[in-house]
Amino acid sequence: MRIAIASGKGGTGKSTVAANLAWALSRSRDVTLVDCDVEEPNLHLFFPAPATDVPVTTPNPEIDAARCTLCGECGKFCRFGALAVVKDCVLTFPHLCHSCGGCTLVCPHGAIREVPRTIGRVSCSRPLSRLVLISGVLNEGEVQAPAVIRAAKVLAEGHPLTLYDASPGTSCPVIETIAGSDACILVTESTPFGLHDLSLAAEVAEKLGTPAGVVINRSNGQDEATVAFCREHGLPVLMTIPFSREIAAVQNRGGLISRDLPGWEERFAGLFRAIPGVSP
Amino acid sequence: MIICITARASGMDAPVEQRFARAPYFVFVDTESGKSESIENPLISAAGGAGPRAVQLLSQAGATVLITGQVGGNAARALAAGGIKAYAYRGSGSVADALAEYTARNLQPIPLS
């Protein structure tokens, strides 16, 4: 079972839900938590533990100057400007490369080969006896977040129950995270912005054919618009977390409400049972 | 010598654009014939890497001098490799005004490394 946690809007509580759900489930079964927010991974803050790092590389073009005739085909082809043919040389800009491999195909002289370059790492740890944490980390200045997410997900393969914590937004990294999941939890908040972005994230899950449910976080009790949206789109509201100073205080010191506040372990276990497609 | 000036529209009377690779137009002036040609920048809404791609375009057009407001790091590296000198025009005048300032040697070179 693979469950993705996404939101659209940033700061709604994806990591809070992922970390607390993982902790509650790890009380009774093996859980693997994958931090797919590779530009700003933060789940290790809830689960500090010694980690082992695996580098993530992507292929980048290398020019064989002896074969290159400066014909310019590669530079014309690359829409990301990762190769530029100017005057008497071919310049490469590895940070702009999306590793599509197209330049090696269009080069009529076989003068381009691909060489691996490190763009990030996957950090693996076992903070609890029944919890494995796998965090993707994209190096600063790099653009290929999906490659690191893929690597993190590959390392989690074969585990019986995996939670993927997505990045905010609805672009490539989020799609990479949700794709292949059995279900998706969409975390929102009681604000117009939260609802607006929930509608975008719900659309992504629907397009990917992933059954989804909603967690309303920081609820001020006035969630009518969100509840109405969920009803119209056939999205079950799986859980509502109130806007509370007590919860914020636990969260702000890196604590887990499922562990530190009475009643919340059971509520997160209940959230898991309510996810579409889960048979406990 | 062919000089490229970044512009907001086509022609010698168009206002100079301060951005290099996201300029709406490139105006190429051949100093020997005095003729100018304006090309709409195909990279204005490119996803990324507009700098090196714009330098390629200049290189193909045979330009050896660029007059613009400023250039980014990737563009600077490509300009240096392509042997294209860049000069800064920070005024609000036209392409013709910028060219006159360049001819009068009033423009500062943009450091490319």
Which key phrases capture this entry?
heterodimer; A: 280 residues; alpha/beta; Rossmann fold; Alpha-Beta Plaits; nine-stranded mixed beta sheet; 10 helices; 29% strand; B: alpha/beta; six-stranded mixed beta sheet; 6 strands; globular
Task: Give an overview of the whole structure.
- The complex is a heterodimer of chains A (280) and B (113).
- Chain A is an alpha/beta fold and 280 residues long.
- Chain A folds into two domains: 2-56 and 120-274, P-loop containing nucleotide triphosphate hydrolases (Rossmann fold, 3-Layer(aba) Sandwich); 58-118, Alpha-Beta Plaits (2-Layer Sandwich), CATH 3.30.70.20.
- Chain A is 32% helix and 29% strand.
- Chain A contains ten helices and eleven strands.
- Chain A has helices spanning 14-26, 73-77, 102-106, 145-155, 172-178, 192-207, 224-232, 245-252, 257-260, 264-274; strands at 2-6, 31-35, 52-63, 83-86, 89-92, 112-128, 131-138, 162-165, 183-189, 212-219, 237-242.
- Chain A has a nine-stranded mixed β-sheet, with helices on both faces. Chain A has a two-stranded antiparallel sheet with strand order 4-5.
- Chain A is elongated, with a radius of gyration of 22 Å.
- The mean pLDDT of chain A is 96.
- Chain B is of the alpha/beta class and 113 residues long.
- Chain B has a single domain (2-109), classed as Nucleotidyltransferase, domain 5, CATH 3.30.420.
- Chain B contains three helices and six strands, in the order βββαβαβαβ.
- Chain B has helices spanning 50-61, 73-81, 95-103; strands spanning 2-7, 25-30, 36-40, 63-68, 85-88, 108-109.
- In chain B, strand 2 and strand 3 (36-40) form a beta hairpin.
- In chain B, helix 1 packs parallel to helix 2 (73-81).
- The model of chain B has no long low-confidence stretch (mean pLDDT 96).
- Chains A and B meet through strand 4 of A and helix 1 and helix 2 of B.
